[in-house]
Write a structure and sequence with these properties.
Helix content of chain B: 25-40%
Number of helices of chain A: 10
Distance between the termini of chain A: 51 Å
Radius of gyration of chain B: 21 Å
Largest sheet of chain A: none
Strand content of chain B: 15-25%
Largest sheet of chain B: 7 strands, antiparallel
Number of helices of chain B: 4
Oligomer: heterodimer
Helix content of chain A: over 70%
Structural class of chain A: mainly alpha
Shape of chain A: globular
Chain lengths: ~170, ~230
């Protein structure tokens, strides 16, 4: 019964979960691994997850945590400047999605996960902090550094953003 | 300008590039196969764990005479979890590394461990499985990278039928002065569980939650070794 229900859940939720894994991992093969690892965990805890009433949210949380737990093993290996090989890219140049993707690929999974939770899920810092077992100030710091890194790699001028102001408030 | 980058990120994450075609039936088969492999490993580990516990138990009987004979196994966890009864006594810090729980003392705590309100702390995710009875304390312990471990300690609970997760056999579990111990790791909730029955009849139950499994294990070991030694 548990298996059947899990299979039903899988069929219904798989497209969204697969996409979420891909956004988190940023790479097709890593996304497939992340998806499988997370679903195996979910399968083992299925009675509890089903009882919780929000299996999609639960599996997405497992995914985010699993992605973060891998972060020490999977750091960016290519120097940003080498990976991009671009100079003086104006903000308009960011329109070229490939450049943004390559810049995103240089972030650690932890930084990327913070950005995905914030910009895709619209989660507040407190929620992200709770989900990733970090402090809110750490989440702000991670996001700030991630955005700073993206701006640097995309040659976007560093503004005095709200994000930076938030960071200063907490430091 | 900042808004522009943020908008670009939102558009990137919501865009169509990340569609991943996965066949549900094939994936289901793969998951079931991986799950059964994992279960087999768990069962093997549990058998080894029980054998070691039984051996330690016999040794304990020889040395200390009759003691608690209940051998715990990593069976199905209780359906109820997490937010449990209020502490029957207030946990009190008595030294930098110790907290008093009734007449029991939790030792081996890092100096930076902070005693927090048990009810409020356990109401936050991840939900952990704890005995419904017993004196309890919850502490937060900061670790690297701005992370922290939430450690729940319960003393002298009446009973608990098992622990969630997979058994993790550690050498030091056999060096706890004849105590019966079971350690499990629950990947779903990033929690390491430990239950210990000491020869003096004291029961300890620990649940450490946090993203770093190695840090959780280090903390659980330090607290368990120091606490059981002082029991």
């Amino acid at each position: 019964m548990t298996d059947t229900t899990f299979d039903e859940f899988l069929r219904q939720a798989l497209p969204g979960l697969a996409r979420y894994a891909y956004v988190l991992a940023g790479d097709r093969h890593a996304a497939e691994d992340l998806l499988q690892d997370s679903l195996v965990k979910a399968m083992g805890a299925w009675p509890r997850i089903r009882q919780d009433g929000n299996p999609v949210g639960y599996v997405r949380t497992i995914m985010a945590r699993t992605n973060v737990s891998r972060w020490r093993r999977r750091r960016p290996s290519v120097p940003v400047s080498d990976a991009l090989g671009v100079k003086d890219v104006a903000l308009e140049g960011v329109e070229h999605r490939d450049e943004l993707r390559r810049a995103l690929a240089t972030l650690s999974p932890l930084q990327r996960t913070v950005l995905v939770l914030g910009f895709l899920d619209g989660a507040e810092d407190e929620e992200i902090a709770q989900l990733l077992h970090r402090r809110p100030a750490t989440v702000r710091s991670l996001r700030h550094r991630a955005l700073q890194s993206l701006r640097r790699n995309l040659r976007i001028e560093e503004p005095r953003s709200q994000d930076r102001a938030d960071l200063q408030e907490t430091s | 300008m900042t808004e522009k980058l943020e908008e670009l990120l939102a558009a990137e994450f919501r865009g169509g590039r990340y569609e991943l075609q996965v066949d549900a039936d094939r994936l289901s088969t793969t998951l079931r196969r991986r799950r059964s492999r994992r279960t087999a490993v768990t069962a093997a580990a549990a058998v080894c764990g029980l054998a070691l516990v039984a051996t330690a138990g016999v040794g304990m009987l020889n040395v200390f005479g009759p003691g608690p004979s209940q051998v715990q196994s990593a069976g199905p966890a209780p359906a109820t979890s997490a937010v449990v009864a209020s502490p029957t006594v207030a946990a009190k810090r008595i030294r930098a590394d110790s907290v008093q729980l009734g007449d029991a003392v939790v030792r081996g705590l890092p100096a930076e461990a902070k005693l927090v309100d048990a009810g409020a702390a356990l109401a936050r995710p991840p939900a952990v499985v704890l005995p419904q009875t017993g004196d309890r304390a919850v502490l937060t312990v900061p670790v690297d990278q701005g992370t922290e471990i939430r450690l729940a300690v319960v003393a002298d609970a009446e009973d608990h039928p098992g622990l969630p997760g997979m058994p993790d056999e550690q050498d030091w579990l056999g060096s706890l002065g004849g105590a019966h111990a079971l350690l499990t790791v629950d990947d779903v909730t990033d929690t390491t569980y430990l239950s210990v029955n000491t020869p003096t009849g004291r029961r300890w139950h620990l649940a450490a939650s946090g993203p770093d499994a190695a840090a959780r294990l280090t903390l659980v070991r330090a607290v368990t070794v120091a606490t059981v030694a002082g029991t």
